[in-house]
Write a structure and sequence with these properties.
With about 450 residues, the protein is an alpha+beta fold. It has six helices and 23 strands. The longest helix is centred in the N-terminal third of the chain and has 32 residues.
Length: about 450
């Protein structure tokens, strides 16, 4: 452990979240080539020749030429068949494969060059107020000594005026200072935290503001449409891997969507977990320090924000779909402030398994499940907008202003499209009947 100028302990760590993994491989089938061989000419029926019969000699030569051509074609095909069956690759095939690999490599390189100027390193100093000094948790004179921790993550420029989007866990509670390192290595230290989602929120999002760009031109990232993403689509992840303050690039595919996970921080100062919903799953490597960086499509558009990686190191990462954050982005860009809409319910995202467990008639929606501790953690918070609108335990919210809640649209992400004070209409399934409930959005009291 190093010491700062005041003699206090300083330790470094990398901020990431860690949950899960799978992989599979399939061996391609061998190619079988079939040939049909025409019958050889009947030699007894061939005309007799003498050395004075010129036309007969010519005919014989033609027949022999055709026969040689036929046999050479058969031999060539047989050799190709054997080469493929034995797992050999022809020169032409190697050339084609090389062209494909080169093309993919050039495309990834071009995407990195295009997007990297919009990706920054986020460098954070955090005060940990938990006593961790070696002697009984106390410093000199018997007082607890707060520990300083340094962490690093990634951010995405979303405005030329210096607005940065990153993960909440990159700039957690206790953050004392933030600096930004641009892709060209320039460090900007006058940075403030505009706001972050609450610790219990399923969206792991925060916004920063560079107050003094020192004359540097900031290039905002181009945002895509995550609702158009399909399993198998190619993606590229860019971020500040391992806290080295320079961008790294990995590539892969979208291997799943609508994933809900419980993620824990690897930060030495935190053992907390987060319940994250509606995530993309990708095999593009998301390394420590990549949190908050962009997941982009082949058009260089941001379709997700990298937020977690599997703890077992099996090349599975998770990203927040960009559409889930568009409402918050719009609000911050418009007002320069962060205030998250709130209705005041604790809900469970429905899946087929959850629906079966509670004997529900629908498999999509936000289920206001009965609370195990209704006194301290009621399903519907007293005096909240939801309580005032009459929402109850066992209600299933299926739509927000006509938009379905499903694997691509969580309740939280749909609500985040509206500002506090806005009236919205919720479609609710209650006791087998569909009703419509009008709710005025409040402001989250626990950001």
């Amino acid at each position: 452990m190093a010491e700062d100028k005041n003699g206090k302990g300083v330790k470094t760590s990398l901020e990431t979240l860690q949950p899960f993994s799978v992989s599979s491989a399939r061996r391609p089938n061998k190619r079988t080539v079939s040939f049909t061989i025409p019958p050889l000419p009947n030699m007894s029926s061939m005309p007799s020749f003498n050395k004075n019969n010129t036309s007969s000699k010519t005919g014989l030569l033609v027949v022999l030429f055709l026969l040689a051509t036929l046999l050479s074609g058969f031999a060539g095909g047989w050799i190709e068949s054997r080469m493929n069956q034995d797992g050999l690759v022809t020169t032409a095939s190697l050339s084609n494969q090389k062209q494909i690999v080169t093309s993919d490599s050039e495309l990834t390189s071009q995407i990195a060059k295009t997007v990297s100027p919009s990706v920054v390193s986020v460098n954070v100093n955090i005060t940990n107020n938990t006593p961790t000094s070696p002697v009984g948790g106390f410093g000199l004179f018997g007082f607890s000594q707060p520990e300083q921790e340094q962490a690093a993550g990634t951010g995405i420029i979303i405005s030329s005026k210096g607005i940065i989007m990153t993960n909440r866990h990159v700039v957690p509670d206790g953050t004392t200072s933030v600096s930004i390192t641009l892709s060209d290595g320039t460090e900007l230290k006058d940075v403030s935290v505009i706001g972050r989602t609450g610790a219990s929120d399923s969206l792991d999002v925060a916004f920063l503001k560079i107050n003094n760009t020192q004359g540097h031109k900031l290039i905002p990232a181009v945002l895509g449409n995550s609702s158009q993403v399909q399993i198998g689509n190619s993606v590229v992840a860019i971020g500040n891997a391992l806290g080295q303050f320079q961008n790294t690039v990995t590539s892969g595919i979208i291997s799943g969507y609508g994933r809900d996970i419980q993620a824990g921080s690897s930060s030495a100062s935190s053992s907390s977990t987060e319940n994250l919903e509606d995530l993309f799953q990708t095999d593009a490597a998301i390394n420590e320090g990549n949190s908050g960086g962009p997941l982009v499509n082949l058009n260089g558009q941001v379709i997700g924000m990298n937020t977690a990686t599997a703890a077992s190191g099996q090349s599975i990462g998770f990203a927040i779909p960009i559409n889930d954050v568009l409402g918050l982005i719009s609000q911050v860009l418009k007002t320069g402030k962060f205030s998250q809409p709130y209705i005041g319910v604790r809900y469970v995202p429905l899946t087929a398994d959850v629906s079966s467990e509670y004997n529900l008639s629908v498999t999509n929606g936000a289920f206001i499940a009965p609370s195990a501790d209704p006194i301290n953690n009621p399903s519907v918070v007293p005096s909240s907008p939801a309580a005032q609108a009459g929402l109850q335990e066992n209600d299933v919210i299926t739509q927000v202003n006509g938009t379905n809640i499903n694997q691509m649209n969580s309740l939280t992400s749909l609500l985040d499209n509206y500002l506090p004070g806005k009236n919205i209409t919720l479609t609710v399934l209650r006791g087998g009947h569909t009703i419509h409930v009008s709710v005025m959005l409040g402001t989250n009291p626990n950001p």
